[in-house]
Every structure is written in C-alpha cells, then in structure tokens.
Amino acid sequence: MEFELVPYKTKPTKRERPKAGREGDVEGFGHVIVERCPQVQIREKGMDTARLSGPAFPETIFRGKRRTGQPSLFKAELTLDGRAAELRFNAKALKREDRVLRIAYEGREYIYFSEGLGKANILEREGVRVSIAFGRQIPPAFLASAGTATGPVDAVDLAIAIVLEEVDTDVLTLAGAALSAPFALMQRWSDGAE
Predict the structure, then answer these.
(1) How would you write the chain as a 3-class SS string?
(2) Could you read off the pLDDT of 73-82 as tens digits, one per residue?
(3) How many Cα atoms are found within 13 Å in the side-chain-facing hemisphere of 175?
(4) Fewer CB in a 10 Å sphere around the end CB: N or C, the chain?
(5) 0.70 cut: is pTM over it?
(6) Residues 6 or more apart whose Cβ sits within 8 Å of residue 134
(7) Inter-residue contact 167 to 132 (CB < 8 Å)
(8) Burial of 47 by CB count in 10 Å (0-12 exposed, 13-18 middle, 19+ buried)?
(9) Is the CB of residue 77 less than 8 Å from the CB of residue 84?
(10) In this structure, are residues 146 and 26 in contact, taking their beta carbons and an 8 Å threshold?
C-alpha cells in the first residue's frame, strides 16, 4: 500500500492558534490529519503536542520537549485512544542499530528508526513495515511525505508512523544528534531551571 501526506499551515485568528501538519488519504483507512501548533505555548512549559485524527484511526497524541518547532523524543509520551504506549530511546547510543525508538503498545513491540538524515523513517513490528520518506515537491517550498506499508498493516500501525512525521526525530541518527547538540544543551539547561 502507498499513500501521500501533504503539509499544510493555517494562520492564527482571534479565536484559534495557527496549526501546521500533514494530511492525506490512506487506501482502505480514509482521511487522516496530524497537526501541531507552531507557536510557543507558554502554559505548556516547554512541551509540544502532535495530534492525529481520522475516522478510521485511534486518536493519537505525541507529547515531547519542544525542539525546532516540534515535539521531540525527549520527555516523550504517546497515547492512542487514551491508552499510553511505553517509549524507550537511548540518546547516548553510538551504534546506528542502537539509536532506535522502541515502542510497546497493547502487546505489540515496535522499533522506529531512520535510514539516515534526509532518508526514510521506518516503523516495524513483526510482519509489518511502514516507511515514510520525502515525496514530491509542492511549490513554493514544501515536500510531501511518501508512505509505503507492507504486511497486515492496521490503523494503529499507521497512526504511530504518521504522527511521528510531525515529531523532531533527527536524534535517531548520529549526524542528526550532532547537528542538534546545541539544542540538546539548551534543553538540558531549561530542564535544570524547571
């Protein structure tokens, strides 16, 4: 199965904050949207949220420390229909195969990893693989996300993979971790101030 997610942004109004995210139609599952607020929200104490919704998908919420305008893997929480998933990530790992996000949810064990900076991000569990990479360019300067799913994929698999598209996952690669090191240092200082 293949699908495409297209980026979008809204402007702030008097009643609503701006929103940014991705949306698209997934064959057999219908429309899906994942959104976040690109503005800093003082009340959230440095945390940011990406929220996925769609008629065939569980409501999926990812919260993490705000980095580069998105939630990150630091202090991260993931819930699907109000039930928490367990997340494990070793930010100090040096080997590529050890720099994976491990997700446990309702008896399922996932690994989420990057093939490299600017390459596909992949969510896997036994018999299932969801890969999302850069897709076509959308003028003026946006890139769609091109997804491919193999195996007996269900709405939970897709929801987790798609919500992570609006999360800063650069630290899954050593190069990404090195480039984001200044942000990590600032984050450590802000953690100490809380």
Answers:
(1) CEEEEEEEECCCCCCCCCCEEEEEEECCCEEEEEEECCCCCHHHCCEEEEEEECCCCCCEEEEEEEECCEEECCCCEEEECCEEEEEEECCCCCCHHHCCEEEEECCEEEEEEECCCCCCEEEEECCEEEEEEEEEEECCCEEEEEEEEECCCCHHHHHHHHHHHHCECHHHCHHHHHHCHHHHHHHHHHHHHC
(2) 888 999 999 9
(3) 6
(4) C
(5) yes
(6) 118, 143, 144, 145, 146
(7) no
(8) middle
(9) yes
(10) no
Structure token pair of residue 27: 């064959």
Q: Mean pLDDT, to the nearest integer, of 146-161?
A: 97
Enter the tokens of residue 70. Answer: 């998105």
